Every structure is written in structure tokens, then in C-alpha cells.
Amino acid sequence: MIQQRLFLLAQAKPLTTDAAVAAAQPLLVKSLARELAALPAILAEYDQQIAALFAVRADYKVWDSFLGAGTALAPRFAAARGTQRERFASGDAMASFRETLIKAIFPLLGFCGWVSVFND
Q1: CA dihedral 32, 33, 34, 39 (to 10 degrees)
Q2: All structural domains of the chain with their residue ranges
Q3: What pTM, to 2 d.p., does this model score?
Q4: Can you say whether the dihedral through the CA atoms of 43, 46, 50, 52 is positive or negative?
Q5: Which residues of 46-83 are buried (b: 16+ CB within 10 A; e: fewer)?
Q6: What does each of the 120 residues of the chain score in pLDDT, given as a tens digit?
Q7: Are residues 50 and 60 in contact, defined by beta-carbon separation less than 8 angstroms?
């Protein structure tokens, strides 16, 4: 596959031969590389802020206790549920919502196939 791509690259024709356009491309690549290099630190700040805000929620222990939720999914479950506790008349209603939420979120996170949800 790599050999095939190298062959295709060798056969490729440029979209333009304009020297100004060609000269600007390395600068674009450098600026994008700098932005990407800064991304891990920015994402770490978001993670810290999300963790701090999540830890002070009244229902933190409920969401954090969900098996497999971890630091990535538990705050998202809490955010999806919101702060209106009256939305759920019972624990069964909450469990049903959780199952629906998990089935909706897992595909977005790249999990494929059948999702089984167990009641704790």
C-alpha cells in the first residue's frame, strides 16, 4: 500500500505552478504544526476544568459510580442529564435514560458493534 501511494505521488501533477502559491505552502504547514503542537496542553486545561466543575456537582458520586464511565464519560453523562432532577420520576427512568445515552454516545466515540448495558 505504501509503495502504491509513493507511485501515485510520483505521478501526481501540481494544481498550480505559481511560485507565490508554492512558496506560501511551507509557511502554512509550519503554522498548522505549531497549532497542533499546542493542542495537548490546551486539551489538558479543558480536562482539568471539566474535572473541577464535575467534582463539585451534587450528583457527582452518582455519575462517577457508573461502571466504566471514567473521567471521560461521567462528566458527559452529567452534562447530558442536566441539573433538572425532576426530569426523572424514578430510578428506572434514570436507568433508561442512561442506557439510551450510552447507546448514543459510544458510536460517536468510535465504539462499534453491539452495546450491552448492565444495571448496576
Answers
A1: 90
A2: 15-56, 58-120
A3: 0.51
A4: positive
A5: eeeebeeebeebeeeeebbebeebeeebbbbbbeebee
A6: 899 999 999 999 988 889 998 899 999 999 999 999 999 999 999 989 988 888 888 888 888 888 778 888 888 878 777 777 777 777 788 778 777 777 777 776 666 555 455 444
A7: no
The H or E element containing residue 19 is helix 19-55
Residue type, 25: Q
DSSP state of 10: H
Measured CA to CA, the distance from residue 75 to residue 63 in angstroms comes to 7
